[in-house]
Amino acid sequence: MFVELATGKVKLPVGQPGTDKVIASYMADSTMAVQVTIRLGEAKEVYPVVSGRDLIHDLEASAWVTGEIKDDDHLDEILDKTPSFDRLTGGKNGAAGADYKPGLDLLENQDAHIIVAAGQDESFGDELSAHCAIASSDLVQRNRIGVIGCGSAANKDAFLAKALGHPLASDRVIFVAPGIKTADRAAVPPVDVSLPGSYAAAAVAGLLASLPAHVSLTNKTLFVGGLEYDLSRAELEQMVKARILALEKRQGIRIVQGLTSSTNTAFRQITTRRIVDFASFGVRSAANPFIGRLNNERVRGSLRTAINGFLAEMVLDEMLVSYELAVSATRDQEIRGIVQVTMTLRPVFSIDYIRVVMFLQ
């Protein structure tokens, strides 16, 4: 799509998901400048410009579009001041060709617990899993969970084959399927659109962020318009067995079971991973003021009291059933400046099934 000038054109290719939803408007203000407004949904970018060359220069700051010279004979002339709106097309989805690694590298040392690779499907799962593992290591100490969704498919059968054949197996990666339906309010009139699982992943991540570490996603309502595919009970059972956080239509849109993609039964539930991460973060925080203090029985006793207080609070908050704690140091460890903290945690697990046995007499 082109934005018309007085006698020339400026091309505005779009590099953002939903490219055909970006609208540009331009109108005159009280001076010789023209106000160019680019709109994506309810968000806007406004540029007062005096010529096509000025517009191209200002668009260097745009998050959505770039300017390209097509005819420089009239670039310094005033833009057409007739108010109008044009829908821009021809751009590419922002995920196409995007390099996510620099972004993940920037986030590596940030206090972010939940990471979503926007627009990416299960093919990006290995990179996301590796990032979460590195960020959660003892070296970086940023305990992290990634959420990713199933990509688009031509039909339901292709979707099931794609989802059930996913390669993910990590207690730090949640795999979401199917996709969701929502209203495209940028269209006139608004229309319903189907979006792949990468968008459902964003909705699940938002819900997860709103819940305490020990509260399960199982049976929670996800506030979306609908599902890309309605699945039968047998198909949902297949997805749960394949370690997929599946969505179903049942009194709204609900999460069948809040689980990670891990093959390790101990960390199958998302809450287990989050409770352990919460405990790890809390113990580090409680122990940090003791770094640099004397390594003797008195200080170690104070350290144990601080950690014990935090863990006891987790029991009161029903994150833990119980725990065992020991703080010690051998003479060799004292010389090397080491205090040994040993914990045994018994986290609370959520109810995923209710088995009823009925006897008739």
List the helices and strands and how they pair.
Elements: E1 2-4, E2 9-11, E3 22-28, E4 34-40, E5 43-49, H1 52-58, E6 68-69, E7 84-87, H2 101-107, E8 114-116, H3 125-135, E9 145-149, H4 156-164, E10 173-177, E11 180-184, E12 191-195, H5 197-209, E13 226-227, H6 233-241, E14 245-249, E15 253-255, H7 270-287, H8 297-316, E16 320-328, H9 331-336, E17 340-347
Parallel strand pairs: 8-9, 9-10, 10-14
Antiparallel strand pairs: 1-2, 2-6, 3-4, 3-7, 4-5, 11-12, 11-13, 14-15, 16-17
Helix pairs in contact: 7-8
Explain what the structure shows.
The protein has nine helices and 17 strands. With 361 residues, the chain is α+β, with helices and mostly antiparallel strands. A hairpin with a 4-residue loop joins strand 1 (2-4) and strand 2. The longest helix has 20 residues, at 297-316. The relative contact order is 0.09.
